[in-house]
Amino acid sequence: MNVEEEIQKLEEEIHRLGSLQTDGSYKVTFGVLFNDDRCANIFEALVGTLRAAKKRKIVAFQGELLLQGVHDKVEITLRPPPPPPQAAAVASS
């Protein structure tokens, strides 16, 4: 699995385990993700996948490196998808 596929799987798992926020984002703690059996089977390097997703601005969390135990309560936010490009559709009409 390449990085893009892993990030897509990470998004799916945050949707499954996280809580929907009023702004359309999802939040889950690192401990919930790290200790989930399904995530453990999918991700060989969860922390690396999280860092790659953060670099691409798909998720947000405090700090650079998350460690089991120490950072279990750190919230990971899956940013809401961008709105559909309505302005482009109106301009082409």
Please name the defining characteristics of this protein:
single chain; 93 residues; alpha+beta; Arc Repressor Mutant, subunit A; four-stranded antiparallel sheet; 46% helix
Please provide a written account of the structure.
- With about 90 residues, the chain is α+β, with helices and mostly antiparallel strands.
- It has a single domain, classed as Costar domain (Arc Repressor Mutant, subunit A), CATH 1.10.10.1540.
- The chain is built from 5 helices and 4 strands; from the N terminus they run αββαααββα.
- The chain has helices at about 5-15, 30-35, 35-40, 45-55, 85-90; strands spanning about 20, 25-30, 60, 75-80.
- It has a 4-stranded antiparallel sheet with strand order 1-2-4-3.
- The longest helix is centred in the N-terminal third of the chain and has 15 residues, at about 5-15.
- The model has no long low-confidence stretch (mean pLDDT about 90).
- Pfam families: Costars.
Topology:
Layout: H1 3-17, E1 19-20, E2 26-29, H2 30-35, H3 37-42, H4 46-55, E3 59-60, E4 75-78, H5 86-91
Antiparallel strand pairs: 1-2, 2-4, 3-4
Helix pairs in contact: 1-4
Organism: Arabidopsis lyrata subsp. lyrata (Lyre-leaved rock-cress)
Domain Costars: 1-79
Protein name: Costars domain-containing protein
How would you briefly describe this protein structure?
With 93 residues, the chain is α+β, with helices and mostly antiparallel strands. The chain is built from five helices and four strands.
